[in-house]
Amino acid sequence: MELGAFSVSLSVKNLDASKSFYEKLGFQLFAGDAAQNWLIMKNGDHVIGLFQGMFEKNILTFNPGWDQNGTTLKSFTDVRDLQRELKAQGLTIEHEADESTTGPASFIVIDPDGNPILIDQHV
C-alpha cells in the first residue's frame, strides 16, 4: 500500500515558539502561512507541520501523490482507492472522502490507541 509522503502534524499552543524550537533541531521553514496559524518545516526528508488551534491531537499524515518535497508523483494510488482498501480490511473510516469525486480529498482512520491518521491527497 503506497500512502505517499509522510509527516507528523503537531497541534501547537504557540506557533512562533514551536517554530523557534524546531529550528534549533535543524528544521527549516518549507511552506505554510503563519497568518493562518500553520507552518511546514523540514530537516532533510523529515517533515513536520505546526498547526495552532486547528485540531486537538497530533496527527500522523500521509499525502498520496506527493514525494517528501511536495512534488507531484507521476503515478500514485488515489486516496479513494486507499479508503476502499482499508474499508475492505475492516477499518472504520472517519470523515470519509467522497468516492464520487476525483482530485484532492482526504479521510481519517484512528489507530487502536486513539491516534488519528490523516490520508490527505492534494492532487
Structural description of this entry:
The structure is a single chain. The chain has helices spanning 15-24, 79-88; strands at 5-12, 28-33, 38-43, 46-52, 59-63, 93-94, 105-110, 116-121. With 123 residues, the protein is α+β, with helices and mostly antiparallel strands. The protein has one domain: 2,3-Dihydroxybiphenyl 1,2-Dioxygenase, domain 1, CATH 3.10.180. The protein has an eight-stranded mixed β-sheet with strand order 2-3-4-1-5-8-7-6, with helices on one face. A hairpin with a 2-residue loop joins strand 3 (38-43) and strand 4. The longest helix is centred in the N-terminal third of the chain and has 10 residues, at 15-24. The two termini are 18 Å apart. The model has no long low-confidence stretch (mean pLDDT 97).
Q: What's a concise summary of this model?
A:
The protein contains 2 helices and 8 strands. It is of the alpha+beta class and 123 residues long. Strands 2-3-4-1-5-8-7-6 form an 8-stranded mixed β-sheet, covered by helices on one side.
- Specify Rg, calculated over alpha carbons: 15 Å
Structural class: alpha+beta
Q: CATH top level?
A: Alpha Beta
- DSSP summary, beta strand count: 8
Strand content: 35-45%
Characterize the main sheet. 8 strands, mixed
> Would you give the CATH topology?
2,3-Dihydroxybiphenyl 1,2-Dioxygenase, domain 1
* DSSP summary: helix tally: 2
Shape: globular
The CATH superfamily is known as: 2,3-Dihydroxybiphenyl 1,2-Dioxygenase, domain 1
Order of helices and strands: EHEEEEHEEE
Number of domains: 1
Terminal Cα span: 18 Å
